[in-house]
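Before relying on records like the one below, remember that each one covers exactly one chain. Contacts with other chains, cofactors or solvent are not represented anywhere in the record.
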Amino acid sequence: MEINLRSVFENALYLLALLNPASKIMFLASYQPAPGQRRNFELSWKSTAAALLILILLAAAGQFLLGRIFRVELYSLQITGGLVVFVIGWTAVNQGRFVKRQQDSLMEGLTDISLVPLATPLIAGPGMIAAVIAGSVADGLLPTCAALTLALLINFLLMISAGGINKFLVKTHLLGPLIRVTGLIIAVVAMQMMITGIRTALKL
Protein backbone atom coordinates (compact mmCIF):
# COMPACT_ATOMS: atom_id res chain seq x y z
CA MET A 1 0.00 0.00 0.00
CA GLU A 2 1.36 3.40 -1.04
CA ILE A 3 1.66 5.94 1.75
CA ASN A 4 0.91 9.61 1.09
CA LEU A 5 3.42 11.45 3.28
CA ARG A 6 1.41 14.66 3.27
CA SER A 7 -1.70 12.80 4.41
CA VAL A 8 0.31 11.01 7.11
CA PHE A 9 1.66 14.33 8.39
CA GLU A 10 -1.79 15.96 8.41
CA ASN A 11 -3.31 12.98 10.23
CA ALA A 12 -0.42 13.03 12.71
CA LEU A 13 -1.20 16.66 13.56
CA TYR A 14 -4.86 15.75 14.04
CA LEU A 15 -3.91 12.89 16.36
CA LEU A 16 -1.48 15.18 18.18
CA ALA A 17 -4.34 17.58 18.91
CA LEU A 18 -6.32 14.69 20.40
CA LEU A 19 -3.25 13.53 22.33
CA ASN A 20 -3.07 16.95 23.96
CA PRO A 21 0.65 16.98 24.91
CA ALA A 22 0.06 19.94 27.23
CA SER A 23 -1.95 17.74 29.60
CA LYS A 24 0.93 15.23 29.85
CA ILE A 25 3.42 18.02 30.48
CA MET A 26 1.25 19.44 33.26
CA PHE A 27 0.66 15.98 34.73
CA LEU A 28 4.35 15.05 34.88
CA ALA A 29 5.40 18.49 36.11
CA SER A 30 2.83 18.53 38.93
CA TYR A 31 3.09 14.88 40.01
CA GLN A 32 4.30 14.37 43.59
CA PRO A 33 6.87 13.25 44.47
CA ALA A 34 8.40 15.00 41.48
CA PRO A 35 10.14 12.50 39.16
CA GLY A 36 13.79 13.23 38.35
CA GLN A 37 15.03 13.46 34.78
CA ARG A 38 15.84 9.75 34.57
CA ARG A 39 12.51 8.72 36.12
CA ASN A 40 10.64 11.11 33.84
CA PHE A 41 12.32 9.57 30.78
CA GLU A 42 11.40 6.08 32.00
CA LEU A 43 7.77 7.05 32.59
CA SER A 44 7.58 8.73 29.19
CA TRP A 45 8.94 5.88 27.08
CA LYS A 46 7.06 3.16 28.97
CA SER A 47 3.73 4.95 28.67
CA THR A 48 4.35 5.83 25.02
CA ALA A 49 5.31 2.27 24.08
CA ALA A 50 2.30 0.82 25.91
CA ALA A 51 -0.09 3.33 24.34
CA LEU A 52 1.37 2.68 20.87
CA LEU A 53 0.83 -1.06 21.26
CA ILE A 54 -2.73 -0.58 22.54
CA LEU A 55 -3.68 1.82 19.75
CA ILE A 56 -2.13 -0.26 16.95
CA LEU A 57 -3.99 -3.34 18.17
CA LEU A 58 -7.23 -1.38 18.29
CA ALA A 59 -6.61 0.14 14.86
CA ALA A 60 -6.12 -3.36 13.47
CA ALA A 61 -8.93 -5.15 15.26
CA GLY A 62 -11.10 -2.39 16.67
CA GLN A 63 -13.78 -2.42 13.99
CA PHE A 64 -14.10 -6.21 14.25
CA LEU A 65 -14.33 -6.05 18.05
CA LEU A 66 -16.89 -3.25 17.97
CA GLY A 67 -19.07 -4.67 15.22
CA ARG A 68 -18.86 -8.42 15.74
CA ILE A 69 -18.30 -8.77 19.48
CA PHE A 70 -19.96 -5.74 21.08
CA ARG A 71 -22.44 -4.93 18.27
CA VAL A 72 -21.38 -1.29 18.38
CA GLU A 73 -21.13 0.89 15.27
CA LEU A 74 -18.14 3.17 14.69
CA TYR A 75 -20.30 6.30 14.81
CA SER A 76 -21.35 5.43 18.37
CA LEU A 77 -17.69 5.39 19.41
CA GLN A 78 -17.08 8.69 17.61
CA ILE A 79 -19.99 10.37 19.39
CA THR A 80 -19.11 8.99 22.82
CA GLY A 81 -15.36 9.50 22.44
CA GLY A 82 -15.94 13.03 21.18
CA LEU A 83 -18.18 13.78 24.16
CA VAL A 84 -15.57 12.58 26.66
CA VAL A 85 -12.81 14.61 25.00
CA PHE A 86 -15.11 17.65 24.79
CA VAL A 87 -15.65 17.55 28.57
CA ILE A 88 -11.85 17.50 29.06
CA GLY A 89 -11.42 20.50 26.77
CA TRP A 90 -14.34 22.36 28.38
CA THR A 91 -12.87 21.75 31.84
CA ALA A 92 -9.53 23.19 30.69
CA VAL A 93 -11.19 26.29 29.23
CA ASN A 94 -13.25 26.97 32.36
CA GLN A 95 -10.94 25.83 35.18
CA GLY A 96 -7.48 26.22 33.61
CA ARG A 97 -6.60 22.58 34.33
CA PHE A 98 -7.01 19.27 32.50
CA VAL A 99 -7.45 17.02 35.54
CA LYS A 100 -10.04 17.66 38.22
CA ARG A 101 -8.86 17.91 41.81
CA GLN A 102 -10.83 14.81 42.80
CA GLN A 103 -8.86 12.84 40.19
CA ASP A 104 -5.59 14.22 41.56
CA SER A 105 -6.32 12.68 44.97
CA LEU A 106 -7.14 9.30 43.43
CA MET A 107 -3.67 9.11 41.86
CA GLU A 108 -1.74 9.79 45.06
CA GLY A 109 -1.59 6.09 46.01
CA LEU A 110 -0.31 4.85 42.65
CA THR A 111 3.29 3.62 42.65
CA ASP A 112 3.66 3.20 38.88
CA ILE A 113 1.85 5.74 36.73
CA SER A 114 3.39 4.74 33.39
CA LEU A 115 0.51 2.40 32.46
CA VAL A 116 -2.34 3.93 34.46
CA PRO A 117 -3.09 6.77 34.06
CA LEU A 118 -0.36 7.82 31.57
CA ALA A 119 -0.57 5.14 28.85
CA THR A 120 -4.31 4.88 29.30
CA PRO A 121 -6.44 6.91 29.52
CA LEU A 122 -4.20 10.01 29.19
CA ILE A 123 -2.53 8.88 25.93
CA ALA A 124 -4.71 6.04 24.63
CA GLY A 125 -7.99 7.66 25.60
CA PRO A 126 -11.48 7.47 24.08
CA GLY A 127 -10.79 10.16 21.49
CA MET A 128 -7.58 8.53 20.27
CA ILE A 129 -9.20 5.10 20.16
CA ALA A 130 -12.09 6.40 18.06
CA ALA A 131 -9.69 8.30 15.78
CA VAL A 132 -7.34 5.39 15.02
CA ILE A 133 -10.19 2.95 14.38
CA ALA A 134 -11.91 5.44 12.07
CA GLY A 135 -8.57 6.23 10.42
CA SER A 136 -7.79 2.59 9.71
CA VAL A 137 -11.20 2.19 8.07
CA ALA A 138 -10.90 5.36 5.96
CA ASP A 139 -7.18 5.47 5.11
CA GLY A 140 -5.91 1.95 5.79
CA LEU A 141 -4.01 0.42 8.67
CA LEU A 142 -0.44 1.23 7.55
CA PRO A 143 -0.94 4.99 6.95
CA THR A 144 -2.87 5.26 10.23
CA CYS A 145 -0.09 3.50 12.16
CA ALA A 146 2.50 5.76 10.52
CA ALA A 147 0.58 8.89 11.53
CA LEU A 148 0.04 7.49 15.02
CA THR A 149 3.75 6.70 15.47
CA LEU A 150 4.74 10.21 14.37
CA ALA A 151 2.22 11.84 16.72
CA LEU A 152 3.34 9.71 19.66
CA LEU A 153 7.00 10.47 18.91
CA ILE A 154 6.35 14.22 19.07
CA ASN A 155 4.32 13.74 22.24
CA PHE A 156 7.15 11.65 23.76
CA LEU A 157 9.75 14.35 23.03
CA LEU A 158 7.56 16.91 24.77
CA MET A 159 6.95 14.59 27.74
CA ILE A 160 10.66 14.05 28.43
CA SER A 161 11.08 17.83 28.45
CA ALA A 162 8.08 18.38 30.74
CA GLY A 163 10.04 19.89 33.62
CA GLY A 164 11.84 22.49 31.54
CA ILE A 165 8.76 23.38 29.50
CA ASN A 166 6.65 23.81 32.64
CA LYS A 167 9.25 26.06 34.30
CA PHE A 168 9.42 28.25 31.18
CA LEU A 169 5.63 28.53 30.96
CA VAL A 170 5.30 29.41 34.65
CA LYS A 171 8.14 31.95 34.46
CA THR A 172 6.63 33.68 31.42
CA HIS A 173 3.05 33.46 32.79
CA LEU A 174 1.96 31.50 29.72
CA LEU A 175 0.78 28.36 31.51
CA GLY A 176 -2.82 29.46 32.11
CA PRO A 177 -3.39 30.88 28.61
CA LEU A 178 -1.81 27.80 26.99
CA ILE A 179 -4.06 25.42 28.92
CA ARG A 180 -7.19 27.37 27.96
CA VAL A 181 -6.23 27.74 24.28
CA THR A 182 -5.31 24.05 24.10
CA GLY A 183 -8.58 23.18 25.83
CA LEU A 184 -10.50 25.19 23.24
CA ILE A 185 -8.74 23.39 20.37
CA ILE A 186 -9.49 20.02 21.97
CA ALA A 187 -13.15 20.94 22.49
CA VAL A 188 -13.50 22.01 18.84
CA VAL A 189 -11.85 18.82 17.53
CA ALA A 190 -14.07 16.75 19.83
CA MET A 191 -17.19 18.58 18.64
CA GLN A 192 -16.25 17.84 15.03
CA MET A 193 -15.77 14.17 15.92
CA MET A 194 -19.26 14.08 17.44
CA ILE A 195 -20.76 15.86 14.41
CA THR A 196 -19.12 13.34 12.07
CA GLY A 197 -20.54 10.48 14.10
CA ILE A 198 -24.02 12.04 14.19
CA ARG A 199 -23.98 12.66 10.43
CA THR A 200 -23.01 9.05 9.79
CA ALA A 201 -25.78 7.81 12.08
CA LEU A 202 -28.41 10.00 10.40
CA LYS A 203 -27.47 8.70 6.94
CA LEU A 204 -28.33 5.12 7.94
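The chain has a mean pLDDT of 91.
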